[in-house]
Write a structure and sequence with these properties.
The structure holds two protein chains of two kinds.
Chain A (H helix, E strand, L loop, with lengths): L4 H29 L3 H5 L12 H9 L2 H32 L5 H11 L5 H18 L7 H11 L1 H13 L4 H8 L4 H12 L1 H16 L3 H6 L7 H4 L11 H32 L4
Helix pairs in contact in A: 1-14, 3-14, 4-7, 4-8, 4-11, 5-8, 8-11, 9-10, 11-14
Chain B lengths: L1 H12 L20 H32 L21 H7 L4 H34 L7 H13 L2 H11 L6 H9 L12 H28 L4 H9 L4 H12 L1 H16 L3 H7 L10 H11 L3 H26 L9
Helix pairs in contact in B: 2-14, 3-14, 4-8, 4-11, 5-8, 6-12, 8-11, 13-14
Chain lengths: 279, 334
C-alpha cells in the first residue's frame, strides 16, 4: 500500500502495540528464569533481586531433562524426515501425473486434517496394543510408535503445499535430465528437489514445530523411558513446590532449538508459502 | 471415506490406459505406457499406508468403540468386549442427562471460542501483515519477532501465560492491582468464566502469527503497480484495502480461515496445559471433554459416543472445506 503520513503514524503505534503483546510473556519467562527461588515464591517482581544462572544448572538435576531432550530430538527429527520424504513423493505424483484415484487420495488426506487427535487417540492406542499382542512389535511407549504417529500429523499440509510448489516448477527441467538418461527417480532427486528447496524447508519446519510441541499423544503413548519434553516439563510443577524459576529456565532451553532453526529458515518459509500454497 | 479410498486402490491394479481421466483431456504425450502408470501409485503408497494406519482405521475403530462396553477391565482384551448397541449414546448424548448437557454445552462453547479466536487472530495477523508489507528499517527484525509465538512450542507459551495469570501473585494481577490500582481485589483468572477469556487470549497469542505469516506471503504476491494506479485515481487507503487487497488474496484467505478454524475448534493443548486434565466447567471445550470422559473418568464408551457425534459434525464441515480447497475436477492446487 502507498504510504501517507497517517499510515506511517498508524504503523509506528500499531507495531509498537503488537511488539508489546508478543514480548511481554517472553520477558516474563526470561526474567523469571534468572531469579533465585525466593523471588518466585512471592509477588511477581519486574526485576530479580539478584540475577542468577543457578536455575539453568538445577533444571538438569530436578528432573531428567537431558533424557527428555534426547527423546524429543529422536522422535521429532525422525518424524520430520519421514514426513518430508513421504510428502515429496506424494506431491510429485499429484503434480506430475494424472492418475485414477488422485482426487480421492487428495480428498482423504486433506480431510484427515479436519479431525481432532482425540478422535483417534484411544483407537490408535488399542490398535498398538493389539499389534503388540499378535505380532509382538511394541509400539505404545516406544519411539517407533510416536514417530509413526507424528509423521502423519504434518503430512496433509505438507503434501498440499508441496503439490502447489512442485506444480510451479517447469516440467522441461526433468524432461531434459531424462533425455540425458536419468531415470524418473533420478530426475526427481537430482533436478526437482534442489529447485524445490524453499518449499521443502518450509514443510520441514512446519513438521518439526508440530511434533516438538505435541502434547496429547505424548501424554498417552510415552512411558518413563520415552517421555518427551512436552510431558516432562510438567514434572517441575507436580512436586509440592512449583519451581517456577526452573520451569521457566527449562522452557527457554526447550524453545531454543526450534527458535534458532526457525530464525535460519523463516525467509524460506515466507518464500515457500508464497510460491506454494498461497496463490 | 475409507471405502472410497479402497475402491481407488483396487482400481489401480488394472489401470485402463484408454479411459480418459475424469473427463479431462488426456495429454497427448507418449507417457501413457503401462510401466509409467504404476509409478504415481508407488509414490503415494507410503503416505496412503500411513494415513490408513494412523488416521482412517483408528477412526473407523473409534465408531465401533462407541457401541461396545469398554471399561478399564476389558480394555486389555478389547477385541472381546461386549456389544451393547446405543447404550453409550443414551448415557452420553441424551440432552436430559447431566453428561449430555455437558456435551452440548461444550459443543456450543467450542463454536463460540472458535469464532472469537479466529476473528481476533485474523484481524491481528492482517493488521501486522499490512503494516509490514512495505519496506522500512527494522522490518525484518519485527517480522522475526512476530513469528516467535508461533515457533515457540505451544506448551511453553501456555506455561508462560498460566504463570502470568496466577491469582495471588502473577504479573497480570501485579500490573492491574499493584501497579495501576485498577482493581481492589485479586481475581481468580483461571477459574469460572474468567478462565474462558484467558483461554481466548492465550490461543490468540499463539495463532495470530500464523495468520500473519500466510497473509504476508499473500500480500507479497500483489504487484505494487496496482496500488499506484489506485492511488493516482484518488482511492483512500481503506478503499485500496477493501477493493484491491482483500479480493486479490481471497483464495489464500479462505484457506487460512479454514485451517485456523479447524485448529481452534480442535484445540486441546492450551486448555490442557492451562488447567490440567480437567478444565473448569465454564471453559471446557469439546476435545478436553472427550479426553476427560475417556482418560479421567475411564468412561471410554461415553467418550466414544461423543467422538462419533463430533465425527459426523466434522464430516459435514469437511465437505464444505474440500469444495473450497479443491474446486471440482482439479488437483489440490491445479
Amino acid at each position: 500500500m502507498l504510504e501517507t503520513r497517517g499510515f506511517r503514524i498508524l504503523r509506528t503505534f500499531g507495531l509498537l502495540g503488537l511488539s508489546i503483546i508478543v514480548i511481554l510473556p517472553l520477558y516474563v519467562v526470561l526474567v523469571t528464569s534468572v531469579k533465585p527461588l525466593e523471588d518466585v515464591r512471592g509477588l511477581f517482581t519486574w526485576w530479580p533481586s539478584t540475577i542468577t544462572l543457578q536455575p539453568y544448572l538445577d533444571i538438569w538435576k530436578t528432573v531428567p531433562l537431558a533424557d527428555y531432550f534426547v527423546n524429543s530430538l529422536i522422535v521429532t527429527v525422525s518424524a520430520t524426515f519421514f514426513s518430508v520424504v513421504l510428502a515429496v513423493m506424494a506431491a510429485y505424483a499429484l503434480s506430475r501425473f494424472q492418475f485414477k484415484g488422485a482426487r480421492t487420495f487428495s480428498l482423504v488426506v486433506l480431510s484427515t486434517q479436519m479431525f481432532p487427535g482425540i478422535l483417534f487417540l484411544l483407537p490408535l492406542f488399542l490398535i498398538f496394543t493389539q499389534i503388540e499382542r499378535t505380532v509382538g512389535l511394541q509400539l505404545s511407549g516406544t519411539y517407533l510408535g510416536l514417530i509413526l504417529t507424528y509423521l502423519t500429523f504434518s503430512l496433509p499440509f505438507a503434501i498440499w503445499m508441496l503439490t502447489g510448489f512442485l506444480a510451479s516448477i517447469p516440467r522441461e527441467l526433468e524432461e531434459a535430465a531424462m533425455i540425458d538418461g536419468t531415470g524418473r527417480m533420478g530426475a526427481l532427486i537430482r533436478v526437482v528437489l534442489p529447485v524445490a528447496r524453499p518449499g521443502i524447508i518450509a514443510v520441514a519446519v512446519y513438521s518439526f514445530i508440530t511434533a516438538w510441541g505435541e502434547v496429547l499423544f505424548a501424554s498417552v503413548l510415552t512411558n518413563s523411558d520415552t517421555r518427551t519434553l512436552a510431558i516432562g516439563l510438567r514434572s517441575y510443577a507436580s512436586q509440592t513446590d512449583v519451581y517456577w524459576n526452573q520451569l521457566m529456565a527449562a522452557s527457554v532451553v526447550v524453545s531454543l532449538p526450534v527458535l534458532i532453526g526457525f530464525m535460519f529458515v523463516q525467509r524460506h518459509l515466507v518464500a515457500g508459502l508464497s510460491a506454494g500454497s498461497v496463490k | 471415506m475409507a471405502p472410497t479410498l479402497e475402491a481407488g486402490n483396487r482400481r489401480r491394479v488394472e489401470p485402463d490406459p484408454a479411459a480418459p481421466t475424469q473427463g479431462r483431456p488426456v495429454p497427448p504425450a507418449p507417457q501413457r505406457k503401462r510401466k509409467k502408470d504404476l509409478f504415481p501409485y508407488l509414490l503415494i503408497a507410503p503416505a496412503t499406508i500411513m494415513e490408513l494406519l494412523i488416521h482412517i482405521i483408528p477412526m473407523i475403530l473409534g465408531v465401533w468403540i462407541a457401541f461396545i462396553a469398554l471399561t478399564q477391565l476389558s480394555i486389555g482384551n478389547w477385541v472381546k468386549a461386549k456389544f451393547i448397541g446405543f447404550e453409550n449414546f443414551v448415557a452420553g448424548l441424551s440432552p436430559s442427562s447431566p453428561i449430555g448437557t455437558q456435551f452440548y454445552g461444550a459443543l456450543g462453547r467450542t463454536l463460540l471460542f472458535t469464532v472469537i479466536v479466529v476473528a481476533l487472530a485474523w484481524a491481528l495477523g492482517m493488521f501486522a501483515a499490512v503494516l509490514l508489507s512495505s519496506s522500512f528499517r527494522g522490518r525484518g527484525l519485527l517480522r522475526t519477532l512476530f513469528l516467535v509465538p508461533y515457533a515457540l512450542p505451544s506448551y511453553v507459551g501456555t506455561i508462560a501465560w498460566a504463570f502470568m495469570f496466577n491469582q495471588r501473585d502473577g504479573v497480570i494481577n501485579r500490573f492491574l492491582v499493584d501497579d495501576l490500582g485498577l482493581l481492589d481485589h485479586r481475581p481468580f483468572w483461571l477459574l469460572g468464566s474468567n478462565a474462558f477469556w484467558v483461554m481466548v487470549i492465550v490461543t490468540v497469542w499463539q495463532f495470530w502469527p500464523f495468520a500473519f505469516l500466510m497473509l504476508l506471503a499473500a500480500l507479497q504476491n500483489i504487484p505494487g503497480e496496482v496500488y499506484e494506479a489506485a492511488a493516482l485515481d484518488g482511492a483512500s487507503l481503506w478503499k485500496q484495502f477493501t477493493n484491491i487487497t482483500l479480493p486479490m488474496i481471497k483464495q489464500a484467505n479462505s484457506v487460512l480461515l479454514l485451517m485456523l478454524s479447524l485448529w481452534i475448534f480442535n484445540q486441546f493443548n492450551v486448555p490442557y496445559v492451562l488447567f490440567g486434565p480437567a478444565s473448569p466447567p465454564e471453559a471446557t471445550l469439546i476435545s478436553p471433554l472427550i479426553y476427560q470422559q475417556s482418560f479421567s473418568n475411564w468412561n471410554f464408551g461415553v467418550g466414544g459416543a461423543m467422538s462419533v457425534l463430533l465425527l459426523v459434525v466434522l464430516l459435514i464441515a469437511s465437505a464444505f472445506y474440500i469444495r473450497l480447497v479443491m474446486p471440482k475436477g482439479k488437483g489440490p492446487n491445479a
